[in-house]
Design goal:
Elements lengths: L5 H10 L3 E6 L5 E4 L1 H7 L3 H4 L10 H6 L1 H12 L1 E9 L5 E12 L5 E10 L1 H23 L3 E6 L10 H7 L3 H4 L10 H5 L2 H12 L1 E9 L5 E12 L5 E10 L1 H23 L3 E5 L10 H7 L3 H4 L10 H5 L2 H12 L1 E9 L5 E12 L5 E10 L3 H12 L2 H47 L5 H31 L8 E4 H18 L3 E4 L7 E4 L1 H17 L6 E9 L2 E8 L33 H11 L3 E5 L7 E8 L26 E5 L3 H13 L3 E5 L2 H11 L3 E4 L8 H11 L7 E5 L4 H10 L3 E4 L4 H11 L9
Parallel strand pairs: 15-17, 21-22, 21-23, 23-24, 24-25
Antiparallel strand pairs: 1-2, 1-5, 3-4, 4-5, 6-9, 7-8, 8-9, 10-13, 11-12, 12-13, 14-16, 17-18, 18-20, 19-20
Helix pairs in contact: 17-18, 17-22, 18-21, 19-20, 20-21, 23-24
């Protein structure tokens, strides 16, 4: 170029600092070195000129011949370009773009090479960081499995695909990339142009959110939440779209089920005839169903926001009852009440009302629910119930409930029988031995102790009897066996039983003069129980040196029995409740006199079973009391029955050297029965089990069998059946002496083959009499 010298070119090249511009000879030796080459590599010209260009290459590239290949490529093609690692003087590496151009003379011979090198390390580091960031981003996106996250190009075709998209939609990446996103929409949405409208909206607004049905690869549908966002480059030009899809099918099912449930509940509430509505925390009406409108007459517009006290009669409002209802419901969680309520026209109806406090998830009180039932039409409801009972489903339910109740009663009866057995068994020994000892001459102190033991044991027996009788009353199983009886005889018997307790307190016990007999039809044992209860109560509540008087009289078609005492009397407020079950005037922890509160309720029930009445009179504490029961005579007999009262303790001897086999697994019971019967002259053999009893029948050939029922392995019923099986004609007289004392136990014992049934605890005299009564039928048992 005219005017430009070679020196000018040299100065121009040397002034370039961003590029290394180097001349090489044909062998690759450095011939020139500009300032840019020195800045980039760190070599000054005097250290590199004359050196092979290979010094700028890593050792691995030198070993592989990379420098020579690049020169050969430039010599062959005229030019060669490469990017790679080069080495600075200090040993550090740089990423360089290198262009090598072959220099030839006019005759075409190779003169050398021009090498231009640019340091791209900073750009490469930035690109590498960007690449790693993209890898991290793609890894993060691909790790998301609950969301389908993918990209679309400007036309809406899929360009990326994560694992969440594969899980949600079923497509593999190579199956979906490049396809239009409308693939995921239903046919009806595609026909309506919905995908195109979404792209138009997101292009215009930058973001769009949508929910609807989407289609998986297998054709199944799922409910999706979709968010599409516009992607722009640095210049603001749209380069595509980001799309996030979430499968909300389960949530939609739950919401739909909740909606249907709420709708069903709303329809149920609206269809129910009862008034069902809500109150705010202050008692103002916030909801109102059709049942409430029908029942109370208010349309919702007239009652919403009004205080619920409007439904109460004026007297209840004046007494503050509405506020108390809310206070109790808030304190206890629920309040139920029955009473009069007022309709909008002022008429009143009898309602059952349940108010329930409502709290939110954090336990904050937010109001009340109120359910009101109109009970004035209860007869119609009962008639409806009777009709329902005739339907099959109700009948099956009723039968099931009946069976459950029957089973519960059976379990309860078995439990009571077991309790009776367990209590009567030890009492049998206590009562029996006490009565045996009282027949002997004893030291006065010992005699007093035995008398106390006997009296208290009899009291315990009475408590057990009362408990069982109450259970029979509750289940309707208490029965009476009416026969001609003498009420005067019953009075004598009760007095004799209670006399020891009266004597212990120096109480005067008298039977006032009256008729020699007072005949009626009734249950002797049950009425004796009534008389005993009244007398024992009188003695119990009369202080030392007091008086108890019994009176029996007849007044036309009725007979009466009264017990008067000089005891503590009865407070007027307690008098109406004196015959209630489990009721006692004094507190359970402070009362001075024990008891279960059952005796007087049994008295009332037994008297009422006889068609009679019972009453109590007292002018107050400290003035005594009088209990009277009156019974109808009904039918009578012309000749009074013999007086069965005992005249003292009569000891009968068993005649004829009678052999008795006693079977009982309880040693105390065996010893007692043996002692009682031997004292009456019998020869007694004992056995503790059914097996021992069978052996004793063979060896001892007893005339009479006395057997317990409840025994381990084989009970008394099993023993009797086995004895009958040995010789069907064998009629061994037998007594079931057992702590199982219910009527059904007696029936079961007789059905098993026992001649008679006696309950424990047994009076020794009664046992001797029972065995003696079997003597005429006794004959030695044969095997």
């Amino acid at each position: 170029m005219p005017g430009v010298s070679l020196e000018d070119y040299r100065l121009l090249v040397d002034s370039i600092a961003d590029h290394a511009i180097v001349m090489l000879d044909p062998t690759g030796q450095v011939m020139s070195w500009n300032r840019g080459a020195e800045r980039i590599t760190g070599y000054p010209p005097d250290e590199i000129v004359g050196q092979p260009v290979a010094r700028l290459y890593p050792a691995a590239d030198v070993a592989s011949g990379a420098p020579q290949r690049e020169l050969a490529e430039a010599a062959s093609l005229g030019r060669g370009e490469d990017e790679g690692w080069r080495v600075r003087k200090d040993g550090s590496q740089l990423w360089a773009n290198v262009v090598v151009t072959a220099l030839r003379r006019t005759d075409g011979s190779l003169q050398g090479y021009a090498l231009v090198m640019r340091d791209l390390t900073a750009r490469r580091n930035a690109e590498e960081e960007l690449r790693r960031a993209e890898q991290r981003f793609h890894g993060l996106v691909d790790a998301v499995t609950d969301y389908a996250v993918f990209m679309l190009d400007r036309d809406g075709c899929v360009t990326t695909w994560n694992s969440g998209a594969r899980k949600a939609k079923g497509y593999e990446e190579d199956e979906i990339v490049g396809r239009h996103f409308s693939t995921f929409y239903t046919e009806e949405d595609r026909a309506a142009g919905r995908p195109a409208r979404l792209l138009e909206t997101v292009t215009r607004e930058g973001r769009v959110e949508d929910e609807g049905w989407r289609v998986r690869k297998d054709g199944t549908r799922f409910w999706a939440n979709v968010i599409i966002t516009t992607l722009r480059d640095g210049a603001g030009e749209i380069i595509g779209y980001a799309k996030v899809t979430r499968d909300l099918t389960e949530r939609r099912k739950f919401e739909e089920e909740l909606r249907r449930s709420e709708e069903r509940f709303r329809l149920l509430v609206e269809s129910v005839g009862d008034a069902i509505y809500m109150l705010d925390p202050d008692g103002r009406v916030t909801t109102w169903n059709q049942g409430a409108q029908r029942m109370k007459g208010y349309p919702s517009a007239e009652v919403l926001g009004r205080d619920f006290e409007v439904f109460f009669p004026p007297a209840d409002r004046a007494a503050g009852k509405p506020r108390r209802v809310l206070e109790i419901a808030l304190r206890e969680g629920r309040f139920e009440d029955e009473g009069l309520r007022v309709r909008s026209d002022g008429t009143q109806f009898w309602a059952n009302v349940v108010v329930t406090a409502i709290v939110d998830a954090n336990g904050n009180h937010i109001g009340f629910s109120k359910v009101t039932r109109d009970l004035t039409a209860s007869r119609e409801a009962e008639e409806m119930q009777r009709r329902l009972v005739h339907e099959q489903a109700a009948r099956v339910a009723a039968e099931r409930v009946a069976k459950q109740a029957e089973e519960a009663n059976r379990i309860k009866d078995e439990f009571l029988a077991t309790v009776s057995h367990e209590l009567r068994t030890p009492l049998n020994a206590i009562v029996g031995w006490a009565k045996m000892l009282r027949q002997r001459e004893l030291d006065p102190t010992v005699a007093r102790g035995v008398e106390v033991i006997d009296r208290n044991a009899e009291a315990q027996v009475k408590i057990v009897d009362d408990i069982l009788d109450v259970a029979r009353i509750i289940t309707g199983k208490l029965r009476i066996e009416p026969k001609p009886i003498d009420l005067v005889t019953i009075a004598h018997e009760a007095i004799e039983v209670v006399r020891p307790s009266a004597h212990a307190k120096d109480i005067t016990l008298t039977l006032e003069d009256g008729p020699g007999s007072c005949i009626l039809v009734g249950d002797h044992e049950r009425l004796r129980q009534v008389a005993w209860n009244l007398l024992s109560n009188a003695v119990k509540f009369t202080d030392k040196d007091g008086r108890v008087a019994v009176r029996v009289w007849q007044d036309g078609p009725q007979v009466a029995f009264s017990v008067s005492d000089t005891g503590r009397g009865i407070a007027p407020d307690f008098l109406p409740r004196v015959f209630d079950r489990f009721t006692q005037e004094e507190g359970s922890t402070t009362r001075r006199i024990g008891g279960l509160g059952l005796g007087l309720s049994l008295v009332r029930h037994i008297v009422e079973l006889h068609g009679g009445t019972v009453s109590a009179e007292s002018i107050g504490p400290g003035h005594g009391s009088t209990f009277t029961f009156v019974l109808p005579v009904r039918a009578t007999v012309s000749v009074p029955p013999a007086n069965p009262a005992r005249s003292g303790s009569v000891r009968r001897s068993l005649l004829g050297e009678l052999r008795v086999l006693v079977v009982d697994d309880d040693a105390d019971a065996r010893d007692l029965v043996r002692a009682v019967l031997e004292s009456a002259g019998a020869h007694v053999t004992v056995a503790s089990s059914a097996e021992e009893a069978l052996a004793a029948v063979r060896d001892a050939a007893p005339h009479v069998l006395v057997s317990d029922i409840g025994m381990p392995e084989q009970d008394g019923y099993s023993l009797m059946r086995r004895l009958r099986a040995i010789e069907p004609a064998l009629a061994l007289p037998s007594i079931a002496l057992t702590a199982y004392t219910r009527a059904e136990d007696r029936t079961k014992a007789l059905a098993a083959g026992f001649t008679t049934h006696i309950g424990k605890p047994v009076n020794p005299e009664d046992l001797i009499t029972a065995v003696a009564n079997l003597t005429p039928f006794a004959r030695p048992a044969r095997t």
